[in-house]
Q: What sequence folds into this?
């Protein structure tokens, strides 16, 4: 597999991670498509195992999101929502790196808490705003982003393994 193909599949995966946090594109399917492209260009057993694992993780996250209590209201795409998703996504990535894999969950929630604490200034109000944000759709975003981080981590590990 050439360096350009590897770079392009990595960019598609990064675009998918961005698409999970900021709606407008099918983020998790872009992550899966990047792994599919990599597996088709690099037909080794490890690549196919990562593709199968990515498919299973993606389908499991879809089932979990489907089983979550549905909040029929749409979150508005205003600056506050973008700021929350930016802080939550950055916290999830940081947590995923610092405390491998499971750190993404407290990192996501910590990022949202930090954004709300900076905005509101008090602990009690920030905690209540975190609870409201998670109930309003944060659990679904966290589930999808965590699955995509797992897939990206497996892909990156397989690429680095050689």
A:
């Amino acid at each position: 597999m050439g360096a350009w193909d590897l770079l392009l599949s990595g960019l598609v995966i990064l675009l998918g991670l961005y698409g999970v946090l900021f709606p407008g594109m099918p983020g998790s399917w872009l992550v899966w498509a990047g792994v599919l492209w990599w597996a088709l260009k690099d037909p080794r057993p490890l690549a196919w195992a990562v593709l199968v694992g990515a498919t299973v993780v993606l389908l499991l996250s879809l089932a979990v999101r489907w089983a979550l209590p549905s909040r029929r209201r749409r979150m508005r795409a205003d600056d506050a929502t973008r700021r929350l998703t930016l802080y939550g996504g950055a916290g999830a990535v940081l947590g995923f790196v610092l405390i491998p894999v499971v750190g993404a969950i407290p990192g996501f929630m910590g990022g949202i808490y930090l954004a709300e604490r900076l905005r509101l200034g008090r602990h009690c109000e920030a905690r209540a705003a975190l609870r409201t944000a998670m109930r309003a759709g944060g659990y679904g975003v966290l589930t999808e982003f965590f699955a995509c981080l797992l897939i990206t981590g497996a892909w990156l590990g397989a690429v680095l393994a050689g």
Notes: The longest helix spans residues 123-161. The mean pLDDT is 89. The helical segments are 3-21, 27-41, 45-67, 79-98, 104-120, 123-161.
